[in-house]
Amino acid sequence: MASARLKVPKKAKKGDIITVKSLIKHKMETGQRKGKDGKPIPRMIIKNVTATYNGAEVFSADWAPAVSANPFLSFKVRATESGTIELKWTDDNGKVVSQSAKITVQ
Amino acid sequence: MKEESTTGLSRRGFFRAAGAGAVAAAGVSLVPVTASADAAKTMAAIDKLTGGAATMSGRINMKTPIIAENGAVVPIIISVDSPMTDSDHVKSLSVFVQNNPSPEVATFNFTPACGAAEVKVNCRMAKTSAIVAVAMMSDGSVYKAEKTVKVTIGGCGG
User: Fold this and answer.
1) Chain A partners within 8 Å of B151 (Cβ)
2) CATH superfamily label, A4-105
């Protein structure tokens, strides 16, 4: 997992419903494929994504191998106060990658 | 899809793609026997999720391509009509692709802070299949919707 991108609007009015978009580089190995030696390539996917807004969990997703490689995810959040939206991706090895973005609520 | 047009398919590439489409269409008549087994598998997965609760139709809007040229990346947008208040909101939304080796794709957990229950995600599809969405509400009701997507080239490897 190398680069993770997170996009939220810089500014929003209080009460607006904003779209949070994210993209992370990950091969999302399904465990179904076979390598050149004929052995199955072990499963290696991002199994959980959790979004927090100023520390409070607002959204999460549990993924199966059927999510595409380099997974894109977008969802909605109601803008309530200025602060930080953070996403955390956890993969099968327990490795966690996080990315955050700031939002100003007027 | 947009990506397809920008790649600028050559004439040869076009016929190759069209040929693959014809093969996929010819294969359709063979599908039903296995499709029913896959449908049973999906139903079992849904029952496990909902605890066997009765499902209702409606409230779920699914935006999916009619034909996916590439099964490795099938964009789906699913939204659920809900006021998203503390007393009445969507708790979770699960997505299944019926004819995949394992039907589960993802489960999205919402909170009232989301404001709207809408997600966009790319999923893999092994072959032409129904995509099933199951939404669980805070009051315990369960809604289900499904839509069929035709797949030209499967995307599960193997």
Assistant:
1) none
2) Immunoglobulins (2.60.40.10)
